[in-house]
Amino acid sequence: MFASNEGHLEVVKYLISIGVNIDEKDNTGETSLIYAIESGHLDIVKLLVQNGADKEVKITISSGGLTKSVLISEMTPLCIASKNGNLEIVKYLISIEANEEAKDKYGCTPLIWASKNGHLEVVKYLISNGAVKDERDKNGKSPLICASENGNIDVVQYLISCGADMEERDDEGRTSLFIATIRDQREVVKHLTSIGANKETKDNSGKTADDYKKNSWWTETMFL
């Protein structure tokens, strides 16, 4: 696993040749394939997969584990590569038919992760290969809502150009504009407003985004 993480291709080849279990997990729940993906070592990713590594393995790392790029439960290799914005690894995993719609514990697909983290080229590639642009996580948030929430304007613009519905709501009844407003994502707010997003929508509590913004305590503490 250390060799995969550090990019030591010849060492990985040797370990495979002597029969090391490729899919063995360490005490944080990660396999050699996961380490190689997290570190961006495409050559090792390919080698491991070609020698039988499970491309759909789901890892489970507790929040008290190692402080790494993955502190989320049940993410597949494609989810991790998409979350980290590693386009070449995303392309490779899709080329070997990794499941584009596999969800983690929280219902996030690779496209949701790429949208949330602002990885436009990964978003484009996933959609061009058939990823569902309106899939939702367990809170009812779509890729567009996640991109809006995090201020990823280029992803927001692209998803809308692909037909994503800017009036869709999450499980709390909040639209992309609503969430962008309360998160103070001004560039996203400006864009959504300019193309006609409804500024007066109310959530399931009957409140508008401006109602929340007027509450200074709520504004300061909601997203800590």
UniProtKB/TrEMBL annotation:
PROSITE patterns: ANK_REP_REGION, ANK_REPEAT. Signal peptide: none annotated. Pfam families: Ank, Ank_2. InterPro entries: Ankyrin_rpt (IPR002110), Ankyrin_rpt-contain_sf (IPR036770). ANK repeats lie at residues 1-27, 28-60, 73-105, 106-138, 139-171, 172-204. Keywords: ANK repeat, Repeat. SUPFAM superfamilies: Ankyrin repeat. The keyword Repeat applies. PANTHER family: ANKYRIN REPEAT PROTEIN, GH09064P. This is Ankyrin repeat protein, putative.
